[in-house]
Predict the 3D structure of the following.
Amino acid sequence: GENVEQHPSTLSVQEGDSAVIKCTYSDSASNYFPWYKQELGKRPQLIIDIRSNVGEKKDQRIAVTLNKTAKHFSLHITETQPEDSAVYFCAASGNSGGGADGLTFGKGTHLIIQP
Amino acid sequence: EPEVTQTPSHQVTQMGQEVILRCVPISNHLYFYWYRQILGQKVEFLVSFYNNEISEKSEIFDDQFSVERPDGSNFTLKIRSTKLEDSAMYFCARTSGTNSYNEQFFGPGTRLTVL
């Protein structure tokens, strides 16, 4: 089955600086890669996703890149703000048989924005 | 996007008892999923459900677990003979109900505590 590795486990950056979180996956059949933000005690919230037919996607201050050959994808947050502090999870899934597969998550990155 | 709701928000049970967790969809969502998250750990896929049938299940989803949609509306996860290690947050998720099969949106979760 799919295995997703995520690094770093903790990332501390100064407010206003950029943050980058990296993930690798093992199953070359995976074709969908979402990122979730989870605040303490809350549900995971989908913040951005990318499919295997594109290499990069951007939404305001966040962007995701995908390298299918190397089987890795990254989340980039620019101009970080205190409200960006949370745990971020990457995930991967396929789309076998016309249905939506379950997501395999990484272990999460605790992002801390220092004022 | 309207979200699913989950009941109860917190369930406390004695080891060996059975629990039923409920997910209530708002509109005609296509796929439903159950995930669990042990405190401080990553989100883990349990099972997906489509058209009143299990679509996919993980290794975690053994004979202790079952899912059904008894009244065509509520979507339930039953855990038989609970163990201490079943203590976790259980999230129901659904897809968007459009052609975007993959995007999964999580409900608020049920915190299960097994004593």
Notes: Residues 56 and 103 of chain A are 20 Å apart (CA to CA).
